[in-house]
Design the sequence.
């Protein structure tokens, strides 16, 4: 997927972003250069780490929002289909992990087995014909794990729907005033990372009660690298 790059960043800045594209670009460049110098045996994820202020998680309304980034941050994220016969055949052809209704029935609502299923994949798709059966077959296990399946129709391209999930990130305030989300990886280009960061930051700010007044700090950090401050 190609980043819309500078056009996207210019539009976000026009809307009132408090971080400068030139500063973010410089920090991205430094982060990527460091990852090349200390090359790992795995692909490092790049996280956006956020510190908030003037927020009381106990009293203020906790925000939650998802946005699809222009470039997939975690291409190796595993997506499993819970499907009917038609969709399972499609998944098998494209070598996507899948489970049929019969496979789910064999779990017999065993909490340990359902927890194991939830932990075995990063996300799930489910055939529209099966989505209503999921709670009956698996109980609340996938929902509790934050992995309730995204419905797909027979006309959907399963690979494209899986990529949509891989490109989507979620900001959710819980009990602490810090959060971190994967917004890229070190194999991405400078422009791709920059586009993801600018879109993610400005979307996050749109969720906050007092917008930029609630932002204490913003950092980007690769898995094994040093944090780079953006704000």
Sequence:
């Amino acid at each position: 997927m190609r980043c819309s790059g500078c056009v996207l960043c210019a539009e976000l800045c026009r809307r009132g972003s408090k971080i400068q594209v030139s500063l973010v670009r410089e920090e991205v460049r430094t982060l990527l250069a460091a990852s090349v110098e200390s090359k790992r045996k795995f692909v490092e994820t790049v996280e956006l780490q956020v510190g908030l202020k003037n927020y009381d998680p106990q009293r203020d309304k906790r925000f939650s929002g998802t946005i699809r980034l222009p470039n997939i941050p975690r291409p190796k994220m595993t997506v499993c289909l819970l499907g009917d016969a038609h969709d399972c055949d499609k998944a098998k052809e494209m070598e996507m992990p899948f489970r049929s209704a019969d496979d789910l029935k064999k779990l017999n609502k065993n909490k340990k087995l359902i927890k194991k299923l939830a932990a075995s994949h990063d996300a799930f798709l489910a055939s529209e014909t099966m989505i209503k059966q999921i709670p009956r077959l698996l109980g609340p296990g996938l929902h509790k794990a934050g992995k309730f399946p995204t419905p797909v129709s027979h006309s959907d391209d399963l690979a494209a729907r899986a990529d949509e999930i891989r490109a989507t990130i979620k900001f959710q305030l819980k009990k602490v005033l810090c959060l971190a989300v994967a917004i890229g990886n070190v194999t991405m280009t400078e422009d791709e990372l920059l586009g993801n960061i600018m879109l993610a930051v400005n979307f996050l700010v749109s969720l906050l009660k007092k917008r930029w007044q609630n932002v204490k700090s913003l950092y980007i950090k690769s898995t094994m690298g040093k944090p780079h401050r953006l704000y």
Observations:
- The two ends are 28 Å apart (CA to CA).
- Residues 1-6 have pLDDT under 50 and may be disordered.
- The beta strands are 45-52, 64-68, 79-83, 98-100, 123-127, 150-152, 168-172, 178-185, 215-222, 228-229.
- The longest strand covers residues 45-52.
